[in-house]
Amino acid sequence: IFDKDFGEMISSKKKNEQNPIYGEDFQFEIPTLENMELTVTVMDDDFGCDDKLGRCLIKLEDLDLTTEPLEVRRKVDDNKFSPDSWIHLTIAYGEPTEDADAADTLSHVGSAAYEALRTRHPEHHGKLWNVTNGRVVGDLHQTPKEAWPGGPTVEEGHDDWFPEIMGEILSRTKIWADVCSLGSPDGRFMASFKNALAVIAESAGERDEPVVVRMMFGNIVGMPTNCNAVRDELTADLPE
Predict the structure, then answer these.
(1) What would the pLDDT profile of 198-227 be if each residue is shown by its tens digit?
(2) Helix axes of 227-235 and 187-204: crossing angle, nearest 10 degrees
(3) Which of 107, 98, 103 is nearest to 125 (CA)?
(4) CA 54, CA 99: separation in Å to the nearest integer?
(5) Residue ranges of the chain whose pLDDT lies below 50
């Protein structure tokens, strides 16, 4: 009986790095985890013949793998007179996910992005990515009002209504919502968003699945966003 080989993947090369970080994805199509082993070999990069620096064998069936990524740490070189060498991997196993909203609705670019997401990052579906389509409901809002093609000089406080209406729209979320902005919320926007999240949290208590709200902010030079601090302030008053 011979072992079946399901392929080999080779990472990129790192120069002058004692503790290289790769951040690369590799996919193998395997029928089962039973008796399945992953061999990892670490090599140097010489002009002539490359030397083996370390190696480990991972028995996949012992890891209880699912589509949720699992952090795996293995020793690849056992040294007597210097520190041991280790590798850190993130491993997942499962079928690519499907999103019902993707059927016959995406452009060529959208289809390529969806294929990459569903095959490489299925565990993040519903948390970090979704597929959707729709139409504008109601009016588009802008500030100042009637600013295009040109309007009268505006007074202080003319935009106070805008944070309120953004919060009201966000509070309608039932499944998931995405908020994209160059800057993180503060002042009236922070207060409005916190009120919206409180409404969402109350309605989410009646659901089996969590409601997902994702926010993306620009990383402007000289004005970095502390996303953890923004998250903590937005959720400070929410129930556990």
Answers:
(1) 999 998 887 888 899 999 998 888 888 899
(2) 60
(3) 98
(4) 41
(5) none
Left if phi > 0, otherwise alpha if psi is -120 to 50, otherwise beta: which for 68? beta
What is the tens place of the pLDDT at every residue in 153-187? Answer: 667 777 888 999 999 999 999 988 999 998 899 99
Tokens of 5: 């080989």
Q: Residue 152: its pLDDT value, please?
A: 63
Q: ∠ at Cα 79 (73, 81), nearest 5°? A: 135
Nearest CA to 105 among 127, 126, 135? 135
pTM above 0.85, yes or no: no
Q: Nearest to residue 129, comparing CAs of 117, 137, 141?
A: 117
- CB distance 189 to 166 below 8 Å: yes
CB neighbour class for 193 (10 Å; exposed up to 12, middle 13-18, buried from 19): buried
Identity of the residue numbered 138: G
* pLDDT confidence of residue 73: 94
Structure tokens at 30: 């395997």
CA-CA distances (angstroms) from residue 147 to 132, 143, 166? 31, 7, 19
Neighbours of 38 (CB within 10 A): 18
Residue whose token pair is 């800057």: 183
Cα dihedral 104/105/110/112 (nearest 10): -10
Q: Exposure of 230 by Cβ count < 10 A (0-12 exposed, 13-18 middle, 19+ buried)?
A: middle
The residues near 28 (Cβ < 8 Å, ≥ 6 apart) are 6, 7, 9
